[in-house]
């Protein structure tokens, strides 16, 4: 019997040379920012965001470096600070991954947007008023949101092979769980991203072809990865500021673990949903910017997961004295993926998200 490469050379050459001679790239120290993590270890710390005229902040991260070779996966929570289930799932994930059993590396961004998280703000930074998930890839010398996006792009996205951007309905959104598949036209990225969506575990998938194709104006965190040739997934699970519902936290944690098995980073059987529902087309409906002087109160007339026909009244907006100033009706039949469930509304903000179920 022919001896294995390992048995032939075990006592003859150093471990690193041995691994290379067998065609295996050995695990190495993994550095993100100032954090250096040797193989088989887990370390947590902060990525420093450059200071600017509007202050400074930092990003808490956990890095797990496996002892065996494999891909690098980024898992990002807290892009929007009022979205709590992904943040709690990120903490669970860090505790559930054993470095000695991991193949590859995992970067967990515990809270991407600390200013918004600490001030409990919906969508926008309390410092610069910007939506972090609209300013990627960011600017080193920009506003605080742009600088956060820049650090995530340079220190996280550019260091990994795959990415999961974890969201839920913000503090004002009643949302059904779903994932996004965001095809770019590049099959080498699109098909792996499609597989990620299919195996994650959320059984409803939105097809979104509207994401920008320019890597220098990518806008969204996950799209920043996709436009750089790195398959990515955005998931949504939870909403309206609820932080204690395990039914919204566990699917996120389990989904990442399922994805790690799919990527051969962890042992175990991949358990995709038995049936998938795809939405295409979909559309988010906004309170028109033309009514920028008409802020008021939104009254939803539908609920999440409700099927609606074309023309169904989705909600109305009144002024502060109860006079109706706007009504929203569904322009096509579909399912309510989310609807705003708190009264305050300003021009340019979303009111509801509808998806038409795609025929098989």
Q: What is the end-to-end distance? A: 52 Å
Number of strands: 19
CATH superfamily of the largest domain: Zn peptidases
In round numbers, the mean pLDDT is 92
Count of individual domains = 2
CATH topology of the largest domain: Aminopeptidase
Shape: globular
Rounded to the nearest angstrom, the radius of gyration is 22 Å
**Reported CATH architecture of the largest domain:** 3-Layer(aba) Sandwich
Task: Write structural notes for this entry.
- The protein is 22% helix and 32% strand.
- The protein has 360 residues and is an alpha+beta fold.
- The chain folds into two domains: 30-262, Zn peptidases (Aminopeptidase, 3-Layer(aba) Sandwich); 283-357, OB fold (Dihydrolipoamide Acetyltransferase, E2P), CATH 2.40.50.
- Strands 3, 4, 5, 6, 7, 8, 9, 10, 11, 12, 14, 17 and 19 form a 13-stranded mixed β-sheet that branches.
- Strand 15 and strand 16 (324-329) form a beta hairpin.
- Helix 3 crosses helix 8.
- The protein is globular, with a radius of gyration of 22 Å.
